[in-house]
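Technical note accompanying the year-one report. For the benefit of new consortium partners, we illustrate the data format agreed upon in the data management plan: each record pairs a sequence with a structure-token string. No post-processing was applied to the example shown here.
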Amino acid sequence: MELTKNFVKHKSPCADGFRWFLRNHQEGSDYQPLLDALVNAGRVDDACWLLTQFGPTDAVLRVDAIDAEAIVFAGTLEVQGNIEVASIVRAGRAIRAGGGIRAGHSIIAGEDIRAAGNIRSEGTLDAGGDIKVGWGIEVQETLRCGGDLRAEWELLCGGGLSVTGNTFVGQDLMVKGVFRCDKSIRTGGAITGLDCIWAGNGIESGAAIICEKHLEANWGIKAQEAIIAHGTIKAGESLQAMEEIQAGAGYGIYAGLVVQFDAWEASAQVRAKSKPERLMSGWWGGACLA
């Protein structure tokens, strides 16, 4: 794709960026070479803007490793080893790494992100498709996943976490912002949320579920240890914990919100070490069975 002066101007670029284009590419430029030139000139934000405006390509870049200030590629990145960038790694389509991915600012892909090692971003992590990681994920700001999210080790998110598909974490999961998952959440370790946690389907934790605000799932919620929230606890079906279930002061606990009353005993059970205070709905079934 060749980008001419008039073609770029039609997208209403910023004045400074357009002046740079006229000084350096008066006769126009092919798409990817222009992205590379912008990155090499330290104009990474302009390269990202250009990719947003003109979209992805089917090109594939296959390399052994990436160690750079930044990389903005319109197609798919396939890296045999690690990706290490000081600021941004962005691909119009997928990012695939045989090792880990580390960025000082953000990691962005229009489609899937897959890494055999860790993913660490000092800023954001954003994928239009699935995110699948062989080790753990650490993100200092927001994390958005347009498909399924899977990390075999822990997941630590310093901002909001939004997942369109299912979330699976092999160990502990900690989110400082709002955690919204449109399908199910399942972890091998504890779930800790410093804001609200909401699941379109169910939530299952291999340890405790601790939520600083409201905890809600359209299906059931199950924990191998305690379920504790500082706000309301709501489950469309059953609530089960091996230890206590506790809502915040002045808040209630609700189970069976999508189950007919006559089916509560089978599908809206509440089981815990002791009967929760302020159990507003659901069928109390006694201690949770192992």
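Partners are asked to follow this layout when depositing records. Residues 35-286 form one domain.
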